[in-house]
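Inverse folding, one chain.
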């Protein structure tokens, strides 16, 4: 005997006969004017007298002006006509000193094209010229802009375009070239549920999470800061092998008293927005880690202070209370950072596609390209060209906008009781 059939789930696809006929008469009702409480409720109270079904709604309020659009079926109440509905809506709108426009048509909105992406644009400021260039580039790839809204006005202007009809990779490539030419930052990610899933964010430390190069802070106490800084700059540009340069720089620290570690920790300056970035991600359920070509003597302290989930770096060898000028254990270099990203992701139970990596130097490139989204933060040219996206403003919390997190959500997270 066959098993009884269970009732159709509310999330199951609708059978063809129940889908709205594309030829069904519909009306697009558009309301414009000064915003005030009760407009949305008032419009639908007015429409309710005509027994219409709501097909779609869009509403936006900009500088106190409302644009409310309602796509509804044609009137079905006994004895009423479309003309009656039009007259009633216009009368209601005029009573509130609003404007109304009603457009006849059939069916629902046309389906969005295949290939859906979120395009986040950061400007400081965001000009009309740069916005036009971004929109034109989207169109040139075959994409259609379905929706645009602002994510933030502080510390940068951030807007998001919902785009369909073109592939994410093709769109990312085209916009990367355009963004570099017009001086804005653009990130392109695939649309889908994974964007709102809990993620793992892993970042570099020196010149990313913090404003300093830690080895230079140690070198300042050893009297060789200028020499170390020159080697560091060459390594970050990819002109020197990182491991060789690390050993050469650390050797200059030989003989420093271990008490200098506390002094260096006190010297470390967080990048503007770093605390906000980490605090917000943690409150929203993300896991956060750091990987560094620097030293555990500093990253362990940062992990504790900032509540990080993961931290890994090189370790300065200490013997008899003095730095020996050597490091112990495996070197965290370019390949090591990518390996650690994979390890952190596995431990966190997060697919690599849902990881975000942030860095500025050549030794971050493998990590940036391994992550689902690699962000070059105020990076060297070679890194900006290879990463998925670049942020060139000095505020680390702007990375939140690339994840679709709005400024309002940041402020709401700040209001949560720990």
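Residues assigned per position:
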């Amino acid at each position: 005997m066959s098993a009884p059939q269970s009732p159709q789930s509310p999330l199951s696809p609708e059978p063809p006969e129940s889908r709205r006929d594309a030829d069904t008469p519909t009306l697009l009702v558009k309301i414009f004017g000064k915003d005030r409480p009760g407009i949305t409720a008032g419009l639908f109270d007015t429409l309710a007298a005509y027994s219409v079904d709501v097909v779609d709604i869009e509403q936006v309020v900009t500088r106190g002006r409302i644009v409310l659009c309602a796509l509804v079926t044609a009137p079905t109440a006994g004895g009423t006509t479309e003309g009656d509905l039009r007259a009633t809506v216009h009368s209601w709108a005029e009573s509130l000193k609003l404007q109304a426009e009603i457009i006849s048509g059939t069916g629902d909105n046309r389906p969005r094209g295949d290939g859906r992406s979120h395009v986040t644009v950061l400007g400081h400021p965001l000009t009309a010229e740069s916005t036009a260039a971004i929109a034109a580039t989207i169109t040139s790839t075959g994409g259609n802009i379905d929706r645009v809204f602002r994510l933030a006005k502080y510390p940068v202007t951030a807007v998001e375009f919902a785009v369909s009809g073109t592939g994410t990779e093709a769109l990312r490539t085209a916009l990367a070239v355009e963004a570099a030419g017009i001086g804005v930052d653009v990130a392109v990610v695939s649309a889908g549920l994974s964007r709102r899933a809990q993620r793992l964010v892993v970042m570099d430390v020196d010149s990313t999470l913090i404003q300093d190069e830690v080895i230079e802070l140690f070198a300042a106490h050893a009297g060789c800061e200028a020499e170390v800084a020159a080697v560091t700059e060459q390594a970050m540009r990819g002109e020197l092998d990182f491991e060789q340069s690390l050993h050469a720089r650390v050797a200059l620290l030989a003989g420093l008293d271990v008490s200098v570690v506390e002094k260096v920790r006190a010297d470390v300056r967080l990048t503007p927005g770093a605390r906000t970035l980490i605090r917000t991600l943690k409150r929203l359920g993300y896991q956060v880690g750091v990987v560094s070509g620097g030293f555990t003597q500093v990253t362990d302290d940062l992990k504790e202070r900032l509540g990080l989930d993961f931290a890994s770096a090189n370790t300065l060898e200490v013997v008899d209370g003095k730095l020996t000028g050597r490091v112990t254990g495996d070197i965290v270099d370019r390949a090591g950072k990518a390996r650690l990203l994979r390890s952190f992701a596995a431990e966190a139970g997060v697919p690599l596609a849902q990881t975000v990596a942030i860095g500025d130097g050549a030794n971050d490139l493998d990590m940036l390209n391994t992550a689902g989204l690699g962000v070059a933060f105020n990076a060297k040219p070679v890194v900006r060209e290879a990463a998925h996206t670049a942020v060139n403003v000095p505020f680390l919390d702007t990375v939140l906008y690339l994840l679709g997190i709005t400024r309002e959500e940041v402020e709401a997270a700040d209001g949560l009781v720990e």
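Residues 1-12, 14-19 have pLDDT under 50 and may be disordered. The CA atoms of residues 218 and 260 lie 7 Å apart.
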